[in-house]
Design brief:
14 helices; Rossmann fold; 48% helix; 15% strand; alpha/beta; 462 residues; Four Helix Bundle (Hemerythrin (Met), subunit A)
Length: 462
């Protein structure tokens, strides 16, 4: 499997002969998670699910930044503690991402639970003379890391000429960044340098190395984290350990809203809660996977509607497979094998979810074609269904299973409707159809029989 590495600007081979260790920068928990967060986390969810489908063990770490100036500002505005704010939005995070069918990480370390490791990390940086203490805190000295800028391809001298001098005149260089901030405002922790709290960048270095070791396989996040967050992580981590930090740096493109950057000032931020309530998890996942992960993607109602139409094809195909019983059947073995290979090749070639979805939808069309031609046999249907299930599981798409009791009730209602129509009791037939509509059951007429499907309720359709 190959993935685009931001550091080398080339595709790098992932060594799948062993367990894969992945660190994904999570959210700063001061507000609701939005569609941009969803895209990054869904992309990594598909990467993980694909590797696991091949029998590879994945150690997947995703942090929560639960101490930050934004959290403190929110806490002060709401007259709450920073812990109360972070706890609320962590709980909401899990509601959102469980709802999006994202598999939970191996661990979700929090910055506040790793203060000891962060302090030990800073002490090593000071010992190595790449960090220094001021009256306002501890800073990493960017000039002591000659390779600074290698991830973002920014040059130190250009950054220095364009840098604004911060309020802290104690800094030796405007580019130097805080690893520990001295403060008397809660939350604070004791440290050898005084009461304070960690800087943003240091927490990810300390936690990733604690759980995954000094040199792990993949470090990921949104493209907005390349500079300064990931650049600073590399500088402090490699200065501390003397080793390469992550083998591959994988970054996901931004989500724009109808061509504009998401911004609270514009008021166009789409929370996951909002999009889930309106579109459901499958449409959101299809949207997030519709373009190559490294490129920006534009969120629009039109694109979501297109994905809804595609999802209805998936549902129809699923239920045609369930109802398949035609004896005049046509086999699809060669097509299944071809599309299965195309699907895997697409994901192994830099996680090309766009091409993987193309193979998936080609297979979705097959049962619908065969059913229309009265050639969908049970044995063939089971093979198609198994491969569609494999692809769906990797993509994180899910059609809720219908219980035996529900199926029996629906079958009886349809049978009673047919009897009512034969008896020309159209009022009763219409009443039964109305009841089926309330259950989100749609009837599909074939020659000599009527089959049914259950459509997912999509609020945005109303």
């Amino acid at each position: 499997m190959k993935l685009q590495d931001t550091l080398s600007k080339s595709e790098q081979e992932v060594d799948i002969s062993k367990n894969i260790k992945i660190y994904l920068c999570g959210v700063t928990v001061y507000d609701e998670s939005h569609i941009g967060h969803a895209r990054t986390i869904i992309i990594f969810d598909v990467l993980r699910k694909y590797l696991e489908s091949k029998g590879i063990d994945i150690e997947f770490i995703q942090n929560f930044t639960d101490v930050d100036d934004k959290i403190i500002k929110r806490a002060n505005a709401e007259n709450k503690t920073a812990e109360e704010i972070s706890k609320k939005y962590i709980e909401n995070y899990f509601l959102d991402f469980d709802g999006l069918n994202v598999k939970r990480a191996t661990r979700y370390p929090k910055a506040t639970e790793h203060i000891k490791e962060i302090i030990q990390f800073i002490e090593k940086l000071i010992q190595k003379e790449v960090a220094y203490v001021t009256k306002n805190g501890v800073y990493f000295s960017v000039s002591k890391f000659p390779e600074y800028g290698k991830l973002s391809k920014k040059k130190i001298d250009e950054l220095q000429s364009g840098a604004r001098i911060e309020v802290d005149e104690e800094k030796k260089d405007p580019l130097d960044f805080a690893v520990w901030k001295l403060s008397d405002k809660e939350p604070t922790w004791n440290s050898p340098w005084g009461e304070g709290r960690p800087g943003w960048h240091i927490e990810c270095s300390a936690m990733s190395i604690k759980y995954l070791g000094e040199n792990f396989d993949i470090h990921g996040g949104g493209r907005d984290l390349i500079f300064p967050h990931h650049e600073n992580e590399i500088a402090q981590s490699e200065s501390c350990t003397g080793n390469q930090f992550a083998k591959i740096w994988m970054h996901v493109g931004m989500v724009t809203i109808e061509g504009e950057k998401m911004s609270k000032s514009i008021g166009n931020v789409k929370s996951i809660k909002h999009v889930l309530e309106n579109w459901g998890p499958n449409i959101i996942r299809l949207f997030c996977l519709s373009g190559h992960y490294s490129k920006p993607i534009d969120y629009s109602e039109e694109l979501l509607k297109e994905n809804l139409i595609k999802w209805r094809q998936v549902e129809t195909s699923h239920y045609e497979l369930i109802h398949a019983d035609n004896k005049n059947s046509e086999k699809s073995d060669e097509l299944i094998q071809k599309l299965s290979t195309d699907f895997d090749n697409a994901l192994e070639n830099d996680l090309n979810t766009h091409l993987a979805l193309s193979a998936f939808f080609q297979l979705v069309k097959e049962p619908n074609r065969l059913a229309a031609e009265e050639k969908l046999g049970k044995e063939n249907a089971l093979k198609i269904k198994a491969e569609l299930k494999r692809m769906s599981d990797i993509l994180g798409l899910e059609i809720p299973e219908i219980t035996k009791e529900e199926k029996q009730e629906i079958d009886e209602l349809i049978q009673n409707r047919e009897i009512a129509r034969e008896e020309k009791n159209y009022q009763k037939a219409d009443e039964i159809r109305d009841k089926l509509n309330e259950m989100n059951i749609e009837l599909i007429d074939h020659k000599g029989k009527t089959v049914w499907m259950r459509k997912e309720k999509i609020q945005a359709e109303k």
